[in-house]
């Protein structure tokens, strides 16, 4: 692709692998029958690159050990899973794709990683628009016949991808000065993702986007380290408190009525209420990775027959609940340790780095990712582009924080785009 001429062949291959592996592009264009074999074929070059650059995987694993242990723990959960066969066939691809992203995190500089993510976001948007133009089902499926889903299985998935794609493509364009064609390509990607976000009609993703860009703007204009940390944490805390109070006291009922939504968050709150007792049945280790929502199980049938539900759900629409169902409190603690390490490291260097734009974009991504998982679930998502992005970003931030603690607060200038490095 001419507009990606600044990328090396390896970087172009990475973009293609992530777009195809993290979306339903293959299913959309080739059909479900071809998807399994083609998706399996995608894992082969991921494994090959990971093995070829094993030292980078080891380096990243030492910087963020909680991240690699979390993925291994998902695979090990097959030993106590209520559906071992489902856990095994779903956890192994998760481990492969995650190790692939951990390897990439060490191979390229922070600026290069952001440019890669911006290109991935742009290509994903282009794939969705092509699908909408050629595939009737990509323009809507019941009961959302007129709402686009692109190369995803649902309009909300398109909305989520477009929301984070807008943030990443815009952030990448911000740091791509001196690379005119690439910058135009990334600006195009930001505009396309913004358009797809609107037509997806995903309210959660639209709210997340507003929060993310607000946070991005506030952080970019803040110069002092303590002020940056305080403002970011204050915004997150106040937002959480206000949203919780609004739902608890019914303040948002008129607003939901205006947009045609119910104050149950489109049925999410009743789903959480009937699912939570199952979390308490197996709190420490969970039910096994992606094993709980077996549609033929008695537990899912019991949830579907609840008077407040009356449909067969396939996930809980909440990252916390889904994580507890998959890997229990132990897995949740690993995730919390990872976030503590990353936040602690980044807050230590956020206000002392000469050029903080990449740090700010990545920090905004993580906070938006956590906000997004309040009503959706992308944590440990198999073949999910958002979890792949999250894995790459947190791994890179962990490496940067570790390097900064050894070398001091000043970060060295990033190498050229064709060179690999920390």
TrEMBL record:
Pfam families for the chain: Wzy_C
This protein's UniProt keywords: Membrane, Transmembrane, Transmembrane helix
Domain of life: Bacteria
Spans through the membrane: 38-55, 62-82, 88-108, 115-137, 157-175, 182-199, 205-222, 229-247, 324-347, 359-379
Protein name, as recorded: Exopolysaccharide production protein ExoQ
UniProt keyword DNA-binding, yes or no: no
Membrane topology: Multi-pass membrane protein
Species in which this protein is naturally found: Rubellimicrobium mesophilum DSM 19309
Signal peptide limits: none
Listed GO CC annotations: membrane
UniProt keyword Transmembrane helix present: yes
Location in or out of the cell: Membrane
């Amino acid at each position: 692709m001419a507009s990606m001429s600044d990328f090396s062949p390896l970087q172009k291959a990475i973009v293609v692998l992530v777009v195809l592996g993290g979306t339903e592009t293959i299913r959309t264009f080739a059909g479900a029958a071809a998807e399994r074999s083609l998706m399996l074929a995608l894992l082969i070059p991921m494994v090959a690159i990971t093995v070829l650059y094993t030292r980078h995987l080891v380096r990243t694993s030492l910087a963020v050990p909680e991240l690699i242990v979390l993925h291994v723990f998902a695979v090990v959960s097959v030993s106590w899973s209520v559906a071992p066969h489902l856990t095994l066939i779903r956890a192994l691809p998760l481990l492969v794709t995650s190790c692939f992203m951990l390897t990439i995190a060490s191979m390229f500089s922070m600026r290069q990683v952001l440019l890669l993510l911006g290109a991935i976001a742009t290509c994903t948007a282009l794939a969705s628009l092509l699908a909408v133009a050629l595939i009737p089902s990509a323009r809507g499926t019941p009961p959302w016949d007129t709402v686009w889903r692109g190369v995803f299985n649902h309009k909300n998935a398109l909305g989520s991808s477009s929301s984070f794609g807008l943030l990443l493509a815009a952030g990448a364009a911000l740091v791509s000065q001196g690379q005119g064609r690439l910058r135009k390509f990334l600006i195009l990607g930001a505009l396309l993702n913004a358009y797809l976000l609107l037509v997806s009609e995903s309210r959660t993703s639209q709210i997340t986007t507003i929060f993310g860009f607000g946070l991005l703007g506030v952080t970019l204009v803040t110069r002092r380290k303590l002020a940056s940390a305080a403002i970011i944490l204050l915004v997150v805390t106040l937002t959480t408190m206000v949203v919780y109070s609004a739902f608890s006291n019914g303040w948002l009922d008129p607003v939901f009525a205006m947009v045609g939504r119910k104050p149950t968050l489109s049925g999410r709150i009743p789903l959480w209420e009937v699912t939570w007792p199952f979390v308490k049945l197996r709190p420490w280790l969970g039910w096994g990775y992606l094993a709980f929502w077996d549609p033929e199980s008695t537990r899912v049938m019991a949830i579907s027959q609840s008077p407040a539900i009356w449909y067969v759900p396939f996930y809980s629409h909440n990252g916390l609940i889904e994580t507890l169902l998959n890997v229990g409190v132990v897995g949740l603690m690993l995730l919390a340790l990872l976030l503590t390490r990353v936040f602690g490291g980044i807050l230590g260097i956020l206000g002392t780095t000469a050029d903080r734009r990449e740090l700010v974009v990545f920090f905004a991504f993580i906070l938006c990712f956590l906000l997004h998982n309040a009503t959706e679930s992308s944590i440990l998502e198999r073949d999910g582009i958002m979890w792949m992005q999250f894995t790459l970003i947190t791994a890179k931030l962990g490496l940067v924080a570790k390097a900064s603690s050894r070398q001091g607060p000043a970060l060295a200038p990033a190498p050229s785009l064709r060179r690999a490095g920390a």
